[in-house]
Amino acid sequence: MTNAHRVRRVAVVGAGPAGLFAAQALAGQDELPVHVDLLDRMPTPFGLLRYGVAPDHESIRSVATALARTLDLEAVTFWGLVEVGRDVSRAELLEAYDAVIYAVGASEDVRLGIPGEDLSGSRSAREFVAWYGGHPDARPQPLDGVRAVATVGVGNVAVDLARILLKQAQALRVTDMAEPVLEELARSEVRDVWIVGRRGPQHASYTTKELRELVATPGIDVTVSSGAFDGLDEDALDRRTRANVELLRGLPIEGDGAPASDGGRRRLHFAFYARPVEMTERDGRVDGLTVERTRLLPDGSVEGTGSLETLDVQLVLRAVGYRGSPLPDVPFDGTRAIIPNVEGRVVDEAGARQPREYCTGWVKRGPIGVIGTNKSDAAQTVAHVLADLQAAEDAPRDLQGGWVEEPGSVADPRTGEGHRPVASRDGVGPVLRARGHHPSTLADWRAIDAAEIELGRGEGRERVKVSTWDELLRLVTDH
């Protein structure tokens, strides 16, 4: 059997959109026979699509339906409950696979670096999104005593946070939100939400669709801060930004004849050219966010004007970005918070190429772009993977671990029994079995999926998300 006909085995670490797009690209090409093992620390695939997209965004979440077809491909195996560094090492992955693609996303927060940021009532957007998204790692996000909230940041995450906080809880009951989250939102006394950005509306990164949906939320009044459009050069705007600005221009200006809201309505305030400088406190809790008025400089940066205002808020949600976190022993650029790479080929801190290691998604490029951006990003990385595998003419002699001479099988990590022909390395199954570790499988995910649909049926909903580790592991064990 020639090298060209041997099946290469590739590990993709992370089964979120980036990893699934990479697996899809590998399994869908006909240049080289490849089998993909998708490894994830969760027993559920889809990553950000499952836990990071607002539950009321069914159109975006439907992308998961399309990506789910990747899991059904003959050339793809899903192994959950596998964490690099805890269950398997980098060296073991490289021993077990012909190539490894890291697609682990960005799981840490960017901080504001201002006084009061560690007070109770100062939280990260990531924590809050994980809570209402039903992630089993999420901590409860109580809203007791919170009448007003400031979200710092002007991207889609801030828009989602504002919408979830301002929307009537009953309107969210059609989603897959867990019951404790719905109950907390139903008890909420939040009446005001500020979206705070240090620059102007032309610099905001939210999409027009998201913005339009937010300002059209039933039962809210929306205002824009005065001076938001000062010095705006509309000729320099791209199509998306122009649409955003036009939409915001149609809203009342804060304190400038804006209609008074009746007691039953909630209020959304866009505060542009406002830079957070301090969170004030009362009894150890956030009791206000002090912002400094900024102005735009000719080079596009902003500077403070010295004019301060304190927003009367009891909760501040930081939505200014995510950061990647390092995997044990894998090269990591702590400044950019990514795995250092050249078009997806991993390099070390000195720029030296790391053979057979690749990355894609946020851990490759940083937390920018929309979910669909991961498709083209994965295509670039996969093209290099295939080119490098094809170029390894001496692979039977040179690749550590070597090739097997005859077709073997993709082993079920629990039983060791093969179920699909493969003629490459053994994958990580033997390492995990030797440690007595039993990863979850696609069948386990389907059991979780079926349980969520059944829970939803009992409440007249499409599904209700299983959101605790105890219940997820019970479903894995019982299957």
From TrEMBL:
Domain spans labelled FAD/NAD(P)-binding: 9-185
UniProt cross-references to Gene3D superfamilies, sorted A to Z: FAD/NAD(P)-binding domain, NAD(P)-binding Rossmann-like Domain
UniProt key word Ligase: no
Catalysed conversion reaction: 2 reduced [2Fe-2S]-[ferredoxin] + NADP(+) + H(+) = 2 oxidized [2Fe-2S]-[ferredoxin] + NADPH
Keywords: FAD, Flavoprotein, NADP, Oxidoreductase
Chain spans, region Disordered: 409-431
CC cofactor: FAD
Binding-site residues, NADP(+): 198-199, 210, 369
Known EC number: 1.18.1.2
Superkingdom in the source lineage: Bacteria
InterPro entries, A to Z: FAD/NAD-bd_sf, FAD/NAD-binding_dom, Ferredox_Rdtase, Ferredox_Rdtase_adrenod
MF term (GO), any: ferredoxin-NADP+ reductase activity
Amino-acid positions noted as binding FAD in the UniProt annotation, renumbered to this chain: 18, 48, 84, 362, 369-371
Family designation: Belongs to the ferredoxin--NADP reductase type 1 family.
PANTHER family attached to this UniProt entry: GLUTAMATE SYNTHASE 1 [NADH], CHLOROPLASTIC-LIKE (PTHR48467:SF1)
Name this polypeptide is given: ferredoxin--NADP(+) reductase
